[in-house]
Amino acid sequence: MKPKVLITRPTPQNILARVGAGCEVDSNQEDRPLTRDEIMTRLDGCAGILCHLTDRIDSSVMERAPSLKVIANVAVGYDNIDVASATRLGIMVTNTPDVLTDTTADFAFALLLATARRLVEADQFVRTGQWKEWRFDLLLGTDVHHSTLGIIGLGRIGSAVARRGRGFGMKILYSMPQRADVEVERELGATYVDQATLLSESDFVSVHAPLKAETRHLIGARELALMKPSAILINTARGPVVDETALVEALQSGRIAGAGLDVFEQEPRVHPELVEFPNVVLAPHIASASRQTRLRMMEVAAENLIAGVCGGVPPNVVNREVAERNSKPA
Ligand code: DGY
């Protein structure tokens, strides 16, 4: 009998066919997230689930699915899944790293450029017929090239953003709990500093820390107060890493000069004040959303799912101890 799997969102035909070759697939065809109750009901008898960051898979969902072996998230971040409970229950959790690194870094840089050079304001200015004459001081922005870029979290995506910064002749600072290898620092031309130094010396601060208990509100009022009044904050990581209320206050008081945000604390809700600031560029969590990358993410998640339900070790298991425990002879 084929193992049963649940796919929570509409999925390309080739991926469905690939999974369907080895599994009995229950796939949500409606263009809306399944509710928690629907997930619980439909997980009955499933060995695997292919899910997205809008699907909260917590311990009570997992406990209702005793045959579950693998949770394959279609994202690099997996803060929507209670990994500790999954590990306790012997369920593997997988993500989709690498394939979205450059696409996400491109978008972080796009936000940085758009905010610095006031691209969205400029677009609106032209579209709404406000452009009556060329002016020397029209929509003055701030220079990106040869400025200082502070990267909080020099992982895969942070490093890819650093490479882009190098191309713009930027000085690269980074902070994170553990210093990177000297080789990595050399390749990226990145200097390790403590977070306070990074915040006070950078013209652009780009956040690339995963969301965990320790990184919730990593950037709050105290951190924002350390930034230069001319500095711009970019967040393509997870909304709750930045305290949105503190960010609004910092923007209101001119403590910082602007922000480029792809992620928010209560998605899809955006703090009502944020939409009022002309110096804030907003996007609906699309940093990895190129056609090519979203397809690759699906392919990688499907490979993880298939390996997990078929008794193998998925290539991108994040709680490897479960895979190791499962593969030990009884
Ligand atoms: C991720 O992969 O974690 C992104 O935020 C969604 O694509």
How would you describe what is shown here?
- The chain is of the alpha/beta class and 330 residues long.
- Helix content is 37%, strand content 15%.
- The protein is built from 13 helices and twelve strands.
- The longest helix is centred in the C-terminal third of the chain and has 19 residues, at 291-309.
- It is globular and about 70 Å long.
- (2R)-2,3-dihydroxypropanoic acid binds next to loops.
Q: Which segments are poorly predicted (pLDDT under 50) over 5 or more consecutive residues?
A: none
Query: Averaging pLDDT over every residue, what do you get?
Result: 97
The first-level CATH class of the largest domain is given as Alpha Beta
Distance between the termini: 23 Å
Question: Total helix count?
Answer: 13
- The side-by-side strand order for the widest beta sheet comes to 8-7-6-9-10-11-12
Question: Measured on Cα atoms, how large is the radius of gyration?
Answer: 22 Å
Please give the domain count.
2
Subunit arrangement of the protein: single chain
**String of helices and strands:** EHEHEHEHEHHEHEHEHEHEHEEHH
CATH-derived architecture of the largest domain: 3-Layer(aba) Sandwich
Report the β-strand fraction as a percent range. Answer: 5-15%
